[in-house]
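Practice problem: predict the structure.
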Amino acid sequence: MDKKNALRAGALAAGTTLMMLLMSSPALALTRDDGDDPGNGLSVIETLGLYVLAPLVLFAVIAGLVMMLDKSTARVVKPGSAKAKAKV
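Answer:
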């Protein structure tokens, strides 16, 4: 019975996706609108820098600031760990 429900759900998802694709209109991205003035395209290096490097650098800066400004001193030591045995 479980296999039948999975098959039914898969068929429904596939049918819904197919109908959405068939009924959607094209984006008409090649048709220019009045006042449309696109700028120059980005090179591969500029694209990678903007969408890959910049987020990684921003993440690293935020993570570094969080670690540097962390003022909490309470650290949980599990009772069976090596640090707990060393303190005894």
